[in-house]
Write a structure and sequence with these properties.
236 residues; alpha/beta; Rossmann fold; 7-stranded mixed β-sheet; 5-stranded antiparallel β-sheet; 6 helices; 24% helix; globular
Length: 236
Amino acid sequence: MNDILGKALLDYFHGNYTEDILTETNISEEDELPLPYLFRSFSAMPPLEQKALQLAKGNILDVGCGSGSHSLWLQNEGWEVTAIDTSKGAAEVAKMRGVLKVKQVSLLDFSEGKFDTILLLMNGTGIFETIDQVSRYLQHLKTLLQPGGQILIDSSDLQYMYDASEEGGIWVPADRYYGELEFTMKYKGEESEPFPWLYLDPIRFEELATKNGFNFETIYEGENFDYLAKLTVAEW
């Protein structure tokens, strides 16, 4: 897959910012993802992200680190941080911005070390791709946790994107879970292949977490159906 995110982050970092990334899904119109937002400071982050960073502790794994904004703040607070991203360009930018430990690798291919906190932010459940894959990812995340460790992960309930029925329910697709989206990204005339991205409602997420041996706790709810969850292994 062409590294559209990486190219855009590298352009911005090197002062070649002329346009933003355009994203589109199978249920929504084209939308802009402003590049400056991907380089935001702690004070410019939404309260959900600030809360997650303040709860992070110990040896931390930042999954899908992007340009490294979360990792940099945590590092400056004195924590040891390992940042990973599948995007080559994102990993390069995070390193150049000062993140000390960065690897370009997918989560499922990463198995180096055990962590007290694993962070998955900016719709962290997106990385699970589809609802059928959630258990596979949760079981892998479990292998990366220290005893007593925590996973801090956010998502949104996309019910509001669908039409409501007169009875108060929603009209959802018959062939898939309503939070399973297909994304494409465009930047400077290039377009990515469509890729799956999962938004997981908290009720379904808690069911799946429990089934996979985790305690699930919603620790913050935003104003737009978004929430931050904490997962800990049940048997500890």
